Amino acid sequence: MLLNCYQEELLEAGCDEAGRGCLAGPVFAAAVILPKGFVLEGLNDSKQLSHDQRALLRPIIEQEALAWAVASCDHEEIDRINILNASFLAMHRAIEKLHTQPQYLVIDGNRFKTYPQIPHSCIVKGDGKYLNIAAASILAKTHRDEYMTNLHIDYPHYNWQQNKGYPTIAHRKAVIEIGLSPFHRKTFNVSDPQLELFSKNA
User: Fold this and answer.
1) pLDDT tens across 3-17, in order?
2) Where does a divalent metal cation bind (predicted)?
3) Which single residue of 22, 35, 71, 150 has CA 20 to 30 Å from 181?
4) Tally of CA atoms within 13 A in the half-sphere of 5 that contains its CB
5) Which residues are annotated as a binding site?
6) d(Cα 24, Cα 167) in Å, to the nearest integer?
7) Which of 71, 106, 67, 63 is nearest to 92 (CA)?
8) pTM of the full predicted structure?
């Protein structure tokens, strides 16, 4: 069972990102402040949930949270400052957008760039331990999926509606055969040495 928050003395926001491992599109991040005693059946790490489950939970989180915000860094920023720094920047932007400023931050993962004047803790697999991080993971994931689904309309060859920009075999093959779209991350390796081996078994 997930805990409401990491500590209870200070107003706490959970933060998470989505899209770090993608070949295309932005990295999204969310920050969520939940009320004390918040309970939502089924709320868990977004990776453990289906698309339909996430879609059901998102509006409840957005309605019931004390504050929430979603922000992103686009593919050009990712290429310029690298994906790790872009993930941190997207989180900073989400925190900055909160209409209620938190006094403490809990970050999913083991690294973070300190946000000015707000202490933080990094929690490995925190989205499976704390509700506020799990809520942030769902918002980041659903908002990014929505963005990539809309991009798919203009770039159907890469099947972003299904893979959301992640490096599936079919996505890699499409890039090799068609070339990069304007939304691909040029610093990411598209042609995996194992692609040919996997393709024979696809």
Assistant:
1) 999 999 999 999 999
2) 16-17, 108
3) 71
4) 21
5) 16-17, 108
6) 9
7) 71
8) 0.92
